[in-house]
Design a protein that fits this description.
Number of strands: 10
Order of helices and strands: EHEEEHEEHEHEHHEHE
Strand order of the largest sheet: 2-1-4-6-7-10
Length: about 270
């Protein structure tokens, strides 16, 4: 195939997916010897217009895993607004040291349905959004070395025939993962929203700037007026530590994850085969 540019398209609420995507797409562009363009679609304004790609583009599409699938708002944008025209693509997901479940299968299915030709896929274990005790410090140097080895193989594929079929585990239509608490029973914290320590808050507005759903009220930073999918962007991005989640179900589920998924999970890689 002929590649004239590599384009990195990614959603990353807390920076881990952005780091992985930058490593993969940047090295891929350098290896092939073409320019790199980037489309960070993490914020609402960045999703106000669609993205279109041609047959000489190579797109790296990246997203974290939320509850075993892609984040709902990003699924809608990817499915409705990211289009290819016989465009080769690399699917990349990250996950918080538990499992990527069906997120990679979902991304590959969206790419196929939107005019792309998926030639490779990867799932990288990263620091969990809820806690630093899962995937601590990841992606670390070992992960980035994995990314470089993955890219070297993709770059070699890009110079030849990419007409094979990419098979990845999981099902694009599977239900979301059901979280459980320390007692092993399902917990429901979908309605949970961050709370603000008014004694610490300095009204800087950083939380509103970081919310990928635009749900933090820009005139009253204590209020979350829209949906919240617990990405933790406001919690991790608050410069004075004024944001937190206090929902008992979320706290119990986080403790269960820390107890049961502490062992380092490996990254996974998949390539199209003829």
């Amino acid at each position: 195939m002929t590649v004239n540019r590599v384009v990195s398209v990614y959603y990353s609420a807390t920076g881990c997916t952005a780091k992985v995507s930058s490593e993969v797409a940047g090295r891929l562009a350098s290896s092939i010897g073409v320019p790199l363009d980037t489309a960070d679609v993490s914020m609402p304004v960045s999703r106000s217009t669609g993205l279109r790609f041609g047959p000489e583009d190579l797109v790296v599409l990246s997203s974290p895993t939320y509850r075993g699938r892609l984040p709902a708002v990003i699924v809608d944008f990817f499915r409705d607004s990211v289009r290819g025209d016989g465009t080769n693509a690399v699917a990349v997901v990250t996950f918080g040291n538990r499992c990527f479940d069906n997120s990679l299968a979902e991304m590959v299915a969206i790419l196929r349905g939107n005019g792309f030709l998926p030639i490779a896929g990867a799932a990288f274990s990263c620091r969990h959004a809820y806690t630093d005790r899962l995937g601590t410090g990841r992606p670390d140097e070992a992960d980035l070395a994995d990314a470089r080895a993955f890219v070297d193989r993709v770059a070699a594929m890009a110079s030849g025939d990419t007409s094979g079929t990419l098979d990845v585990p999981g099902s694009a239509d599977a239900p979301y993962f059901t979280p459980v608490g320390l007692d092993g029973m399902p917990v429901d914290f979908q309605s949970a929203k961050p709370v603000t320590d008014m004694g610490r808050c300095v009204s800087c507005g950083r939380c509103a700037d970081l919310c990928p759903l635009g749900s933090v009220d820009r005139y009253d930073f204590f209020e979350v007026v829209g949906r919240c999918f617990k990405c933790q962007a406001c919690v991790r991005g608050c410069p004075v530590g004024a944001k937190s989640f206090e929902d008992p179900g979320l706290i119990s589920h986080t403790a269960q994850l820390e107890r049961d998924f502490a062992d380092r999970k490996e990254n996974s890689f998949f390539f199209a085969r003829g």
